[in-house]
Amino acid sequence: MGRKVVLVGCGNMGYAMLKGWLSAGKLAAGDVTVVEPNEGLRARAAAHGVVVTADAGELAAADLVVFAVKPQVIRDVVPAYRRLEDATYLSVAAGTGVATFEELLGREAAVMRCMPNTPAAIGKGMMVVFANRNVGAETKAFVEGLLAASGAVATIDDEALMDAVTAVSGSGPAYVFHFIECLAAAGEKAGLPAETAKLLAMQTVYGAACLAKESGEEPGTLREQVTSPGGTTAAALGVLMGEERLAELVGEAVEAAKRRSVELGE
Ligand SMILES: NC(=O)C1=CN([C@@H]2O[C@H](COP(=O)(O)OP(=O)(O)OC[C@H]3O[C@@H](n4cnc5c(N)ncnc54)[C@H](O)[C@@H]3O)[C@@H](O)[C@H]2O)C=CC1
Ligand SMILES: O=C(O)[C@@H]1CCC=N1
């Protein structure tokens, strides 16, 4: 019999992870219980063969409890899982620290945090993990193995870095999606049909990200390879890089996300 996993909250992030675990064969559907108050989302999860329930009332035991609910409801949600004494707890909530979970659980529990991102839905997420002192090596390996079904896994030893992680990779896909929107809109303004502009913008970001990851070259080197002296790219980069305009804007955006992550944990 495999380890019993309870997934609390099966919205965007919870469902993305659930699909990864099941499709990679990391967990058998019968070993997973989903707790989700929303009936439609319960039905969506149940279609994968997992056990579903509207609240924590019926749960007897679990090896791992995964919280994928909004940070704003953590304080209301966690106490119902106190009685699962042998469980390790894993939270994907932005901001909320391990100390808060220990306080809500009322004991020195084994608590892990993970900052995922939505590309996890197609196995291409960035999953950054922190474990407190009470999590043993075997459990850590099990959880990291589960998360690997959703993408690349990295670990951090200093929980304070989680706010920066959230600002870069947790929220990061939204920045990239907005860049695609902007590039497509600019292409349209430059005369391309809307669908063509969208395809060009999307495939360009996709291809550039794959090249950056797979070539082993520094992003700066790859940028220089596109930039012919006196050519079109140099003209565009003069706008983006002049007075470090884009660098400054991205820096401000990441700082704002990091600040908000800290606030959500207060
Ligand atoms: N969406 C994203 O890109 C990312 C989200 N996160 C974190 O993931 C967490 C969930 O975010 P989303 O999935 O986007 O939100 P969501 O709103 O899609 O999902 C949250 C789910 O929790 C359910 N829920 C509410 N009360 C509950 C309860 N008492 N018991 C069980 N389930 C309950 C809701 O019905 C909802 O389906 C948040 O803490 C967020 O910070 C982290 C990284 C990326
Ligand atoms: O926007 C948020 O608060 C969540 C955390 C990282 C991505 N989405």
Automatic annotation (TrEMBL):
InterPro entries: 6-PGluconate_DH-like_C_sf, NAD(P)-bd_dom_sf, P5C_Rdtase_cat_N, P5CR_dimer, Pyrroline-COOH_reductase. Its EC number is 1.5.1.2. Residues 4-95 form the Pyrroline-5-carboxylate reductase catalytic N-terminal domain. Signal peptide: none annotated. It is found in: Cytoplasm. It catalyses: L-proline + NADP(+) = (S)-1-pyrroline-5-carboxylate + NADPH + 2 H(+); L-proline + NAD(+) = (S)-1-pyrroline-5-carboxylate + NADH + 2 H(+). Catalyzes the reduction of 1-pyrroline-5-carboxylate (PCA) to L-proline. NCBIfam families: proC (TIGR00112). This is Pyrroline-5-carboxylate reductase. It comes from Chelativorans salis.
